[in-house]
Amino acid sequence: MTHSRDTSLNERPSGGAARFAANSASGLFHPEAEPPGAAPAHRRAVGAGPDMRFTLARCSLGPLLVAASRKGVCAIMFGEESDELARELLRRFSQAEFTRDNAELQGTVAGVIGCIEEPSADFALPLDIRGTAFQQLVWAALRDIPPGTTASYAEIATRIGNAKAARAVAGACAANHIAVAIPCHRVVRTGGALSGYRWGVERKRALLDREARARPGV
C-alpha cells in the first residue's frame, strides 16, 4: 500500500483511466446506450444523469477517487491504481456521463482528505446516496455510529428492526461506494474482530486506529 500525503489533484490517470477521461474531444465519457425498453427507474438506480464529475488524488491510504453529481458526493473510493478506480466508477454508475474536473472538485477533495487524515473533523459535504431501500436504511444506521467506536453486523441489523438480517447488513456494507462518509469501516464482527472491507482490511484498521486516537480523552 502506498503511504503518501501528496494530495495533488494533477495526477494524470494511466491506461483505462486515461481513456475514461479523454474518450472524446470534450473530455466526456459516454458509456454504451441504455438497452432498449429499459425503465427510467433503472437509469436512476445505476446512476444515470448528466453533469457527474470525478477527480483522482492521493492520500496517506493511497490513490483516491472522488465523484460528485449536482446533489453532492456520490463516490469516494480507495484503490491501488488510477485505472482500477476509473473502472470501478464505471461499473457502479454504468449509465452516467462523467467528466474529469480537478479544479471544480478541489475543495470537495480537500474536505474528503481532511476527514481521512483528521478523523475528528465532521464530514460536512452534501451526499448523493444511491442504493436500494434496504441499503439506504443500513447506510443511515452506519452514519449514526460515532467516530472511534464500532458496531457489529448483528447490532446494526437489530437497530434497523431486523435482527436476523446480519448477513444482509454485511452485503449492504460491501455495496457502499462512499467510503468514510458512510463509515462501513466501523462495522466489525461480533466480538470486535475485523472482517472484510471493500478497500482492504489494512485501510479499515488504519481508519479505526486514527478515529480511536482522535477520540476526546484518548
Overall description:
This protein starts with 15 loop residues before the first helix and ends with a helix. The chain contains eight helices and seven strands; from the N terminus they run H-E-H-E-E-E-H-E-H-H-E-H-H-E-H. 35% of the residues lie in helices and 16% in strands. The relative contact order is 0.14. It is α/β, with parallel strands linked by helices. The strands form two sheets. Strands 1-5-2-3-4 form a five-stranded mixed sheet, sandwiched between helices. Strands 6-7 form a two-stranded parallel ribbon. The model is unreliable at 1-49 (pLDDT under 50). The chain has two domains: 16-117, Double Stranded RNA Binding Domain (2-Layer Sandwich); 133-214, Winged helix-like DNA-binding domain superfamily/Winged helix DNA-binding domain (Arc Repressor Mutant, subunit A).
- Helix content class: 25-40%
Task: List unreliable stretches of 5+ residues.
Answer: 1-49
SS-based structural class? alpha/beta
CATH topology of the largest domain: Double Stranded RNA Binding Domain
**Strands, count:** 7
Give the termini separation. 27 Å
Overall mean pLDDT stands at: 79
Query: For this structure, what is the CATH homologous superfamily of the largest domain?
Result: Methylated DNA-protein cysteine methyltransferase domain
Sheet having the most strands: 5 strands, mixed
> Class of the largest domain, according to the CATH hierarchy?
Alpha Beta
Order of helices and strands: HEHEEEHEHHEHHEH
Could you say what the CATH architecture of the largest domain is? 2-Layer Sandwich
How does the overall form come out from the CA principal axes? globular
Strand order of the largest sheet: 1-5-2-3-4
Strand content: 15-25%
Seen as an oligomer or otherwise, the chain set is single chain
InterPro entries: MethylDNA_cys_MeTrfase_AS (IPR001497), MethylDNA_cys_MeTrfase_DNA-bd (IPR014048), MethylDNA_cys_MeTrfase_DNAb (IPR036217), MethylG_MeTrfase_N (IPR008332), MGMT_N_sf (IPR036631), WH-like_DNA-bd_sf (IPR036388)
Pfam families: DNA_binding_1, Methyltransf_1N
Organism: Methylocapsa palsarum
GO biological process, one term: DNA repair
